[in-house]
Specification:
alpha/beta, Lyase, Ornithine Decarboxylase, Chain A, domain 1, TIM Barrel, 2 domains, 10 helices
């Protein structure tokens, strides 16, 4: 991919370059070499998180197929696969095609596929990429009938590989009870259009950071998963050489991991699908991982790897500074950004922000940084100053960018990744 003036934060007077050459340009964020606002990734935190999660899975005999919808970045998929990921998960066929084009060979579409155009695309994708394995979710007879009708109309010989989804009352998709799930599994077994490869669920909607609540509710969900998996094996409903049992958002994956090892007589694989672990964040997932650390008695878990750097563009009144970033640049669906550090352009390093600094509101292109005007002048933001903010919910920060530089611990650009929403 080529970086050029059409990419936000890439200075318009720069000549175009290949993305892979970004680390050779000698750019230094604190020197103001790139335009602001700028979303960036910290190389050391990325590597720490890759190693930490891979070790977490390996010591528990599990695999990981991290959710690629978080980043939509082939360069980051490559890092995850190189670190030992079994495959990559996606939310739809469009996203899965991105992965397939960039070498991902095991894909879980953690969602229902049922539209004819998507079934066309998926069938074509499987023809184009020899050896590609794609699994998607099924949770109703109505979905199964749509797939079968598509196959009849197209006169297709494609047999899709599916995972039976169990759901939670009042939450998202998935079969609500055992009889419904078992009846659907039986129908899948007799259908020429699909083959059953395993059981899937998503526990993220249960997360509350109340240890007793989370532990008991996850245990109940995973007991349902084990019950239906055992029943399907007994009835010979699975049609693949290996059965997949998969779950795992990014909040309470440790509790899922306690129950994810399948208890079946045939070969089976437990797969986590956490996606936000790679970049983590400074608010939402940091809070959840503190809870994970408490449950596992860990001194360290994941490190925030994504930041949003902006500049103070105005200090229009006492106690208020306006940062040149807004809703078009950073996530705000769960929490708004948190100031983490400040620096003058040209500084060799950053320093922390005073405790009284807080971003209180966002417009499309502006952030309202409030501070205590009664404090010493050295604690006040000044026009032209750089402010680095932590974010909450990486998924909805990535989707606002087409590229991100990767920096070392002193903010020298050492690499870059593309983002393909």
């Amino acid at each position: 991919m080529q970086l050029n003036a059409a990419f936000k934060a890439y200075p318009t007077h720069f000549a175009p370059i290949d993305l892979k050459d970004a680390g050779a340009q000698g750019w230094q964020v604190l020197q103001g070499d790139l335009s602001f606002p700028l979303a960036l990734l910290k190389a050391s935190a990325l590597q720490h998180n890759l190693d930490w999660m891979q070790d977490f899975c390996k010591t528990r005999g599990l695999d990981i197929a991290p959710h690629g919808k978080t980043t939509m970045s082939p360069e980051l998929y490559a890092r995850q696969l190189a670190a030992g990921a079994w495959g990559i998960s996606f939310a739809n066929v469009f996203q899965a095609a991105l992965g397939a084009r960039h070498g991902v060979r095991r894909i879980i579409i953690a969602n229902q596929v049922l539209q004819s155009v998507d079934l066309d695309s998926l069938s074509d994708l499987l023809r184009q990429h020899v050896g590609l394995q794609v699994y998607f979710l099924i949770d109703s007879m109505a979905q199964l009938r749509l797939i079968e009708a598509w196959r009849d109309v197209r006169k297709s010989s494609t047999v899709f590989t599916v995972l039976l989804e169990l759901g939670i009352e009042g939450k998202r998709t998935g079969c609500r009870d055992h009889p419904q799930a078992l009846a659907l599994a039986k129908a899948i077994r007799s259908s020429p259009a699909v083959q059953l490869a395993g059981i899937e669920c998503y526990e993220g909607g249960l997360a509350s950071c109340n240890h007793e609540h989370d532990r008991s509710n996850v245990a109940l969900l995973m007991a349902r998963v084990q019950k239906i998996a055992t029943a399907c094996e007994a009835e010979n409903y699975f049609e693949t050489d290996e059965v997949l049992i998969t779950a795992g958002g990014s909040a309470i994956f440790d509790l899922v991991a306690e129950h994810l090892t399948p208890h079946l007589s045939r070969p089976a694989r437990g797969i986590l699908r956490s996606g936000c672990y790679l970049t983590h964040d400074h608010v939402q997932y940091r809070q959840h991982l503190q809870c994970v650390g408490e449950r596992l008695n860990l001194r360290e878990t994941l490190r925030p790897a994504i930041e949003l750097v902006s500049v103070v563009q105005s200090c229009p009144e006492p106690g208020l500074a306006i940062l040149a970033m807004g809703k078009r640049d950073v996530s705000f669906d769960l929490d708004i950004p948190v100031p983490e550090w400040r620096a003058q352009v040209g500084d060799a390093c950053t320093r922390g922000v005073p405790a009284h600094w807080a971003v209180t509101a966002l417009n499309d292109q502006h952030a309202y940084l409030r501070f205590d005007a009664q404090t010493p002048a050295d604690e006040h933001p000044v026009v032209g100053q750089l402010v680095g903010c932590g974010i909450s919910h990486p998924c909805t920060t990535f989707d606002k960018w087409r590229w991100m530089p990767v920096v070392d611990d002193v903010y020298c650009v050492v690499d870059a990744v593309s983002v393909n929403f």
